[in-house]
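Lab notebook page, bench 4
Experiment: in silico fold of construct C2
Operator: M.H.
Input chain length: 337 residues
Purpose: comparison with the prior construct
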Amino acid sequence: MESGKYSRQILFPPIGAEGQAKLRQSKVVILGCGALGTAQANALVRAGVGTVRIVDRDFVEESNLQRQMLFDEADARANLPKAVAAERKLRQINSDVHVEGIVADADSSNIEEFIEGFHAVLDATDNFESRYLLNDAAVKLGVPWIYGAVVASYAATMTILPGRTACLACVFPKAPLGIHETCDTVGVIGPAVSWGAAVQSTEALKILLGREADLHGSLLAYDLWSNRFQQIKIARDPQCRVCVAHEFAVLEQGASSHVSMCGRDSVQIHQPESRALDLSALKTRLERFGPVLANDFLLKCSLDTYELTVFPDGRVIVKGTQDPAVARGLYARYIGA
């Protein structure tokens, strides 16, 4: 390990040479590789965290580039999966770190496998369904995780130490009801992403270094545009179904065959069992119906008002609808039941 690379960080007393060595032995998972995930990964890889695993189901699009710092126009033109593009960039940034990009949708069938044995998980998802799933799995396995959310100029974060602090279900026993703002309805600015990811990444460093007394221990929220800052102390719910009763209903309910993607006018379809698709053969078949672009990781087919992005495991993102029935019909017609 090149000590000069981390010399300024080692000068920081809470880290020092001993702490830097501890970071080298640490392992983190970043769930999602959009705005928050790219900023988190960039910070932790540059800090010399030994192993960084990135799990993401999506691919790079031009609209991502305003706030997703690891991607560029070439990644968008190549339709690279975000996990692949991020892994390539991060390996160029710091060869000391083992970076593992996994192109997958984290669900109840695989999330425990993704996070077991790691020292911390950073939340970079965009929906409560995924966060409740992560909360169940992390509490069950005893893995600390750091919640994060960002929209418009607002970001929020909270650190969960299973069995010791409030978990997500203590704070939000049920997902918030009603219509909620999303990045696609009210937008998002890069500095809000940077603030949220900076707090999450710093909390992760504290956990990895064993400095839990320095954790902020709150639900932190900051609106950078209106200059409103909130710090709310959250106590554990003595009747919490997850961290007290150890009832992991979300984890045990099984993966859904479809999920609407936040603000994307898209539905993701996947079968309960992974399918090994021959993308080359599928490309030949789909070219009869519309233009097809393909690389080593996915293929994309335009069909009138719809667009299918197909992954080798049989997962498909259907763009142009938010109706699961329409998406399933297109999947059956073009990919096969």
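Observations: The mean pLDDT is 92. The chain is about 35% helix and 20% strand.
Next step: discuss at group meeting.
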